[in-house]
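Quick one, tokens below:
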């Protein structure tokens, strides 16, 4: 769908990487329920998925971090609406995603860099 997007610059997103005020994932998606009705159920599925992962102490990722990443990767309306909001010139709807984006960006920042390995 990116090929259908207009070739125009949009303003950068500011204010999403305040890790001191990260909310728990359930709380971070509360505002989003108004535009993504399945957000709570997908969030619960992601939290369950994260609770089943064993990292054996080899990672700084928490269950909330894993669930935040998983939530974005699940095939559902959540990531579609988020991606569409990221592409919009009008950033009003995107503000609803800020608490979630804080959680997601915090988690992604903790991932180890990959070098010399193929992912697929």
């Amino acid at each position: 769908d990116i090929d259908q997007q207009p070739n125009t610059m949009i303003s950068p997103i500011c204010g999403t990487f305040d890790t001191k005020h990260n909310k728990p994932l359930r709380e971070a998606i509360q505002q989003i329920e108004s535009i993504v009705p399945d957000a709570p159920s997908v969030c619960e599925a992601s939290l369950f998925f994260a609770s089943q992962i064993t990292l054996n102490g080899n990672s700084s990722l928490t269950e909330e971090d894993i669930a935040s990443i998983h939530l974005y990767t699940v095939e559902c309306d959540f990531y579609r609406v988020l991606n569409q909001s990221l592409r919009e010139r009008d950033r009003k709807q995107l503000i609803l995603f800020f608490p979630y984006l804080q959680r997601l960006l915090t988690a992604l920042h903790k991932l180890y860099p990959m070098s010399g390995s193929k992912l697929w």
